[in-house]
Every structure is written in C-alpha cells, then in structure tokens.
Amino acid sequence: MKAFKVLFTLFLCLVVTEVGEAQTTQCIHCKMNITNDSFRAKATPNIGKTVYFDAIECLVNYLKTRNENSYSNLSVTDHQSGKFIDATKAFYVKTKAIPSPMGANLSAYSGEAAAKEVQKVSDGQLFSWTELKQRFVSSDFGSLDHSHHNHGGAKAYAPVEIMGDHLHPKGGLMVSLRYMNMAMSGNRNGSEKISDQDIYNSYMVAPQDMSMQMYMLGVMYAPSDKITLMLMQGLSKKEMDLTARMTMPNGMTMLRDFSTSSTGLGDLKIGLLLGLINTDKTNFHLNTGISLPVGDISNRDATPMMADVKLPYAMQLGSGTFDITFGGTLKGSNDNFSWGLQQLNIIRSGTNSEAYRFGNLNQFNSWLGYGYSNKLSSSIRISANREGSISGADAELNPMMVTTADTENYGGEFIRGAVGTNLLLANDQLVLGLEVGMPLYQNYNGIFMDEDLTVNIAVRYILL
Question: What's the pLDDT band for 11 if we cut at 50, 70, 90?
C-alpha cells in the first residue's frame, strides 16, 4: 500500500507538470492569460524555472532586456502541428490572415517550405529568428493594437523635431527625410515687441519677415544593440525681407524695401547613441555627436546700399566651427501613453574662419504621446532653450547697419510648445510625422526677429 501511494503521488506530479506546461495560465511578459495554444512559447533558463508566453512577440520582447545565452532552450509552437519547436531554428510568417494573441500577427513553422507556402497564400512576410529579432525596432514591430501590451506602435516614436530619440537593434538601418519651415515676423527687444521706428534710432535697416526652409537627409545604423550611429546632412534656404531708412541728398528720408536670400548645404552632423538602460517600460541612452563645418558662412547678396555685401550671421548656413553635442534621452511607456525627456548641450569649439563663434546652446525637450492605435498617435511637446551670445565678430559686417549684423543681439532664452502626430504605414516600416510649434516665451539678449509658427514634417523608412 505504501508503494502504491508513492507511485500515485509521482503520477499526480507528472500529470500536474504536463498540464501546467500545456495550459499555463499567464504570460510572464504581458501577464495575460494563455488561451490559444497555437501561438504559445517558452524559455528555459540555464538556472531556474521555465517561463511561458502567450505569443511569439512576447518572447522576443522579453529577451530584448536579457541575455539569450542564459537560456538553454527557447521554444515556439509550430502553427501546423501544435508542437513546441526550437525558436532559433524556426521560420516565422507575419500576416494579418493569421492574427496572433498580442497583435503582431506572427506564426511559427518548423520547415522553410511550409512557411513559404503560408507566406505565398497569405501575402505575408517571412523571417528567420535573427531577422525577426532585428525587426523588433523600439518594440514597434512586435506590439500591435493592444492597449494592455502596447510597448510600441506609433506612440513609440518621439515628435518629429526630436532627433536621436531611439536606438535600433543590431543590424538595424533607417533612412529619413525631414522638412522644416520656420517663419519670423516683426522684432523684439528682449521679451517685448519693438517698432521699426525704435530700431531706426540705432540701425539703418529693420528686418520685417524671415523664413527658413530646411531639408535634412538622415541615416541611422546599429552595429550593436547598444550603439546606433547617426549621419545627418541638411540643405537650407533662408529668405529675409527688410526695410531700409535712407537719407536723400536733400536731407529727406525715405523707406526702401528689399530682400536677401541664401541657399546651400548646412553643417554635417555625425552622432552616436549609447544605450544604458533598456527595460519593458523605460529606456535611457546617451546622445553624443560632432558637427562638421560644411555650411557656407560667407554668403553674399545685393542690397540697396551695396551690390555684393556679406550677409549677417543669421543668414549664413553653418556655424563654421566644430560643434560637440552631448546629453541624454529618457523614454517610457504605460498602456496607451508614452513620454520622453531629452537634454542636449551643443558646445562650439574655437573660432571660425570669419573670426567669430556662435554661443553654446542648451536644449531641453519633454513630450507626452498617446496611441489611438498601433498606426496612429498624437503628441504634445514643451521645449526650453538657452543660447549664448556670439563671441568675436565678422570684420565685414557693420553692426550699425542692421540688427542681425550686431553680435550683441544674438542668444537668449526661449520656451516653445508643439503638437504633432505619427502615422505608421507599409507594415510599420514607413513612419510619417507632422508637428506644428509656436513660441510661448522669447527673451533675446538684444533685438531680434519675433518667431511665428514652425512646421516639421518627416518621412522615416526602416530598411532593416
């Protein structure tokens, strides 16, 4: 009888073990009940108990913050046989025709031929284990349409104007094209508006309107999971309308309107993002970089006073110096919401070929995003900047001619607000972004143009 009890106890233990493996009730990653055996997965660590997942996407997201080598076995369910297979040797199909529990629409197959047949019939995408992991960029690829598990989607992307907001997985490659249009109208002295008549008391010319358009091509590539490299090159066009007060030979004064413009490449920016913290809810990385003085700082144009005159500092296309960027970005998410903080410092080094140097720039951005679905999100952003004044001066520029030629008028403190949206297309590889901003507070060191609206548009395409 004693032996029977021992055997019966062992039998119960085996049954419980098998049932537990077949009907695990909760995913270790998203904490949702495992109700569909066709998509379940599991991971067995070298030391410790096996953990279970309700979907392939949960397994991959779970491993993003862990060392895969610390697991002796990673398994996913063959969608055709219903049996566990080696996750690292399986083939994966992403298709809306086979919706998975957490919305990534991923299913696994033990053979490549079977996976290709499903891919062909369902017009899906085929991935190996390595390729699948690479596509989980900022968790966007693997967490779709579920508010309780939305670590990514459109809300995972920062507002358009934020550069270097996320890292890519090893081998990840993204190209982007950004367009910015900033308008300025009228003038301020410090934080107060100033009239043209007051400007003419100290200067011969008063700026009226200015517009700056910039197209920026960017490339991001990740040689490792913790390092993403950035390259950005801009093309700018600046236009300014001005009014000169001119004294005639008879002693009378008259006002004359004219315009100046400059067009060309801006400075080339090279950056490196270094990941330090990466969890399911929070990420932090360092932003570093250097700006190479590619932009022209000797642009000239015609004015009523001279046919070929050096344009003021604000109309030049670059800084003329090697500028160092350093700072950090902290991002987080909770259900449908995402948030971010970014602080960057731009330090100008030396003086340029025209014997001056722009002031150092300190930038702080904070934003809050909301995802209506995986495809669409909106955001609000507040930025605060402090810029130092210009050191030195261009000998060709007469500081008494126009406010923008006087180095005392550059720099100050600024607060801006913006609203934006992000939209995912083309299997979430194409990200369209729009943001409209306006000044909330402006306090210049002297007299400078009054900011109006700024519009930013971006197209980002994830190649890998």
Answer: very low
